[in-house]
Known about the structure:
Elements: H1 25-35, H2 38-60, E1 65-69, H3 70-75, E2 85-88, E3 94-98, E4 101-105, E5 110-115
Antiparallel strand pairs: 1-5, 2-3, 3-4, 4-5
Zinc ion (ZN) binds at residues 7, 9-10, 12, 22-23, 27.
Amino acid sequence: MNQERNCLDCGEPLHGRADKKFCNDLCRNNYNNQLNSSSYNLVRNINNILRRNRRVLEELNPTGKTKTTRKKLAAKGFDFDHITSIYQTKTGSTYMFCYEYGYLLLDGDEVLLVKREES
Length: 119
Ligand SMILES: [Zn+2]
């Protein structure tokens, strides 16, 4: 079977050796520069923050609904600036979510942790 492969940079079909990934050095350099570019790093850093946030919420909320404090979240490295979605209830409460784990800021230092049930 001769499966068609495409250049990882420009997407043009490749010819020649089976382990070839780029048309030429220009495409290879372009691709590698992009991997190291600041926008790529920005995305990667934010992904890491979101993953850590989710892990912290999961760790502090093994039952699916519990209360904790901002202090405890912060101590575990939780970053309140990064979430994946917002859910507003009819009563006006705003839940912040990192993937399926969410939180609601309560009075004082308290935080309600919830988990979205997948249907
Ligand atoms: Zn190319």
